[in-house]
Amino acid sequence: MTAITAATDRSSFLRRVVLVDAATCVAMGLLLSLAANMLAPLLELPIRLLEYAGLSLLPIAAFIAWVATRSNLSRLGVRVVIAGNAAWVAGSALLLVSGWVSPNLLGSGFIAAQAATVVLLAGLEYVGLSRASR
User: Fold this and answer.
1) Per-residue model confidence (pLDDT) at position 19
2) Rounded-to-integer distance, Cα 29 and Cα 59, Å
3) What is the pLDDT of residues 27-70, one digit of tens each?
4) Contacts of range 68-74, beta carbons closer than 8 Å, 24 or more positions apart
5) Cβ(59)–Cβ(16) under 8 Å?
6) Residue 1 banded pLDDT, cuts 50, 70, 90
7) What's the pLDDT band for 10 if we cut at 50, 70, 90?
8) What are the extents of the domains in the chain?
9) What pLDDT was estimated at residue 9?
10) Could you tell me the CA-to-CA distances from 45 to 8, 62, 67, 134 in Å, in that order?
11) DSSP letters spanning 37-59
12) Where are the alpha helices (DSSP H) in the chain?
């Protein structure tokens, strides 16, 4: 395998992970914003929190997709995506410990599961960025 092929393989992994991140943002954004009325009583979370969280994910998804679809992946762009993911996880953790909301067990599990998914994506993006820079 030539150096160019190896570099392309590494950036392809990173590109795929960033695209998955964008797709999960769209999916979660649509779910939260369109199904907030149904999810709120099930999770015991405020409807507006779910709606606004969902709506905020749509432009974020657009930015992440933009980063992923450039002919050359921007290291800075991927770092911004990773930092945004870290901020989302921190916000999710803050929701769970702050007392601002009082979700039931299912709601707490929902918040924790989506945060864990974001941690996984950010970790894969970090690994992909590290591999692509070699």
Assistant:
1) 98
2) 9
3) 999 999 999 999 999 999 999 999 999 999 999 999 999 999 99
4) 68/15, 68/18, 68/19, 68/21, 68/22, 69/19, 73/11, 73/14, 73/15, 73/18, 73/132
5) no
6) very low
7) low
8) 3-132
9) 53
10) 44, 26, 32, 44
11) HHHHHHHT--HHHHHHHHHHHHH
12) 3-34, 36-43, 47-68, 75-98, 105-132
Task: Look up tokens 């369109």; give the residue.
Answer: 34
Handedness of CA 58, 37, 86, 24 (dihedral sign): negative
The predicted structure's pLDDT at residue 133: 76
Give residue 2's pLDDT.
36
Copy the structure tokens of residue 23: 């797709």
pTM of the full structure: 0.89
The conformational region for residue 70 under phi > 0 = left, psi -120 to 50 = alpha, else beta, is beta
Question: Which amino acid is residue 89, in one-letter code?
Answer: V
Tokens matching residue 131 = 């591999």
What does the block give as tokens for 36? 């907030």
Query: How many Å apart are CA 30 and CA 32, to the nearest integer?
Result: 6
Cα dihedral sign for 132, 73, 14, 6? Answer: negative
Q: What is the amino acid identity at position 28?
A: M
